[in-house]
Amino acid sequence: MMGTKQEAQAALFYEFSLEGHIPQDHLLRLIDRFVDLDDTRQYLAEFYSHTGRPSIDPELLIRMLLVGYCFDIRSERRLCEEVHLNLAYRWFCRLKLSDPVPNHSTFSKNRHGRFRESALLRHLFEKTVARCIADGLVSGQRLAADANLIEADANKQNSTPKEDWDHSAVDPNDAPRAVKEYLDVLDDAAFGAASEVEPKFTSHSDSSSQCLS
Known about the structure:
The chain is built from 10 helices and 3 strands, in the order H-H-H-H-H-H-H-H-H-E-H-E-E. By secondary structure, the protein is mostly helical. It folds into 2 domains: 117 residues, no CATH class; 56 residues, no CATH class. Strands 1-2-3 form a 3-stranded antiparallel β-sheet, with no helix packed on it. Strand 2 and strand 3 form a beta hairpin.
């Protein structure tokens, strides 16, 4: 006899455990064993006010960012949606089923504010590398970097030949915020170190997009 789902009154109480629903071999379980964010709040203490409403826990934000990096979720808005829906993400972020997920704008404010001013992400990266060295996973003596050549999104027709390019006529104050931040940390001695060939054309939209031929 074919069975049918019985429609009954919804239960008033449910017994549910996130811990029991996350597989033991899940990637986030493996990562969680080595994630140490105990000093995050102390590290950021001076960047928070002693008065006002309680803020979002910075450890929660970092854990959510780790989820985004591990599963290639580049949109902060989508990241918040995925953490809201995915049980494994909630478990890793220490969120109960009833806990709200931070608004996506919170990430932008913290990443461009407290996290950047305090160099928190650099601190966590160096702390992780130091732990890997202490556990014998890496030696800390060599660095390997993988790089890909990406075609510049620059129009050759909207460019200036090198003999007509006058860099002194460019006013850095007119640059947008992202460009200014890039210029602030740019090492002039290292810029273009990959090639000593002088570019024949320089793009108007992106001066780092240069044509060599």
